[in-house]
Design brief:
alpha+beta; 251 residues; disordered N terminus
């Protein structure tokens, strides 16, 4: 999964300095032409092949009660570090695991994901129509996660005999700035009457020690997230509500 995945594009073939000069024998010019066409065809094939993309999954969650607030959850921006050589003390660089001020992303050293929530039908709730504020300060989100680690052989293949899984259950996700604040969501809904809004979260995992034999490289093989739960306890607008997305979601 921030990210975790890379996109490769084939390079265009180099051009001959003097292709097809008038004085060249016809056979040689024909050979060069066929070679050029073959190279261009190969390049076009490579460019047309889909590149690996970051995992992005969107799920609609019905309202917990009739005429209540429904949600759309977007799981995205996964970071699965390969190789896995985190620095738990670093704020900068490819191995960093710590976020600086106003940095709300999974880090390249430790990895993670983002979760965006969009709430629907809030404007039809009695408390919203009455202009009330939320009695709860923050939305909260939780998820189960399973991260698979192990070692890469010198040829780049994963040695499954070294694999192990680190699991966390209903770990609270981190808030993306004030975007998880209940009254900020209400403010956004009132400022933009035709656009829905909702809280945003992310997860930056803690570092895990991975010991590999000499000549092999530690790596994170995969990320699985499930049982996403978004909650709020509000007496005015959102109610005492929980939105569940079982998943699984992969990075």
């Amino acid at each position: 999964m921030r990210n975790g995945q890379s996109t490769r594009r084939a390079k265009s073939p180099g051009k001959s300095d003097e292709p097809g000069r008038p004085g060249e024998p016809r056979k040689k010019r024909g050979t060069l032409t066929r070679l050029t066409l073959a190279l261009l065809a190969a390049t076009g094939l490579a460019l047309s092949t889909p590149s690996p993309a970051q995992a992005t999954t969107t799920v609609d969650i019905p309202a917990p009660a009739p005429d209540g607030v429904s949600a759309t959850v977007t799981f995205s921006d996964t970071v699965v570090p390969k190789p896995y050589t985190p620095d738990p003390t670093a704020y900068f660089g490819d191995r960093k695991c710590l976020n600086t001020y106003h940095d709300y992303d999974p880090t390249p050293g430790c990895g993670g994901f983002k979760l965006a929530v969009t709430l629907h039908n809030v404007r039809n709730q009695p408390g919203y129509l009455a202009g009330l504020s939320s009695t709860d300060y923050w939305f909260k989100a939780y998820a189960d996660a399973a991260r698979t680690f192990g070692c890469l052989r010198p040829d780049g293949t994963f040695d499954h005999s070294t694999a192990f899984v680190v699991r966390t259950t209903q770990q609270e996700l981190l808030r993306t700035y004030y975007y998880a604040e209940a009254n900020w969501v209400l403010h956004e809904l009132r400022q933009s009457p035709t656009r829905d809004a909702g809280p945003h979260f992310y997860m930056n995992f803690p570092a895990v020690p991975v010991d590999c034999p000499t000549g092999t490289t530690p790596t994170q093989y995969g990320l699985k997230v499930s049982n996403i739960r978004v909650t709020i306890t509000d007496d005015n607008v959102f109610g005492h509500s929980t939105w569940n997305a079982p998943g699984p979601f992969y990075g």
